Fold:
Amino acid sequence: MRTAATVIAAAGLLAAVPLAAQNDAQNERVHVVRPGETLWDIARNYLNDPFLWPEIFRLNTNVVQDPARIYPSERLVLPDGVPAAATETVFNGGLPRERGPSVQFGERVPRPEVLPGDFYRVGFIARRGEVVPVGRLTEPEAHSALDLRMPPQINQYDRVFVQVDESVREGDRLRFLRPGREMRGVGRIYRPTGVGTVAAVDSGVATVVVVGLYAPMEPNDVAVPWERFPLEPNARSQAGEPDLEGRVIAFDEEGRVLQRTESILFLNVGRDSGVAVGDVFEAYEPRHRSRLGIRPEVYVARMQVVRVTGGSASVRVTELGQPSITTGLAVRRVARMR
Structure:
């Protein structure tokens, strides 16, 4: 009888081993790298944002030496915020084996009115002191073997050297901007060119991995700290009575006479006037007297704010009533982001 009890107890312990291993694997949130995967892919799958891949890199610097190169079978610890249901552990011969992200169907999530990509890629007008660079792109790590007498081409996942100040640390994410023309009394136009993550810092020079491109990156582009996207996924604009007037002051595509949906315009009202990302404006020609008599008000376009600075807003045209939009055209806010 004692022997039978011992056998049963031993069997119970053996049966408990896979369960304990399963609990440990789920609590640890480990992902086993598969062929062809990148940190970008893993962040997109688990964190729903590929730009958050530095969060995974920071947790695995003992495994990953170069964030641009990860290898099959490497075990990467995932951030605490990853839900337990996001990973699936399969047991084969008593050993856990990662199968990767699993799909769970649930309630359909509405598409955000303003996408993070719009927020990060659009140009903007900033007053003196609003853009505070922490570095300047100097050159790519690898030079072409051919002397093409042209600026070097920088591609996604290339490594570049950036002169930085003492505030920049390994793992920081940087945005690269190209300063444009100065608008008297308004500010300077800046256009984003790319985004990168600092892989190493040595004597004031950072090695940065380019993880996103918005325009060709070039030496002398300035580096600024990364900004988080300001809207929650369920944020929606709410219509109301017009409560703010402004005007169009410039275009992102200079020289274009006829605008189109998705065109980016700059307005002369911004954060100081209470404008926020997601607010909606309407452009119109006011009622006025012409040589033929009274000309009624004419609807021209509808536009949504995708980025805002102190004295200006960058807006994306979402609807066109008239293709001709000129500087000085009147606008009014007709909906506010809540």
Summary: The two ends are 72 Å apart (CA to CA). Residues 1-26, 84-98, 102-106 have pLDDT under 50 and may be disordered. The longest helix spans residues 2-28.
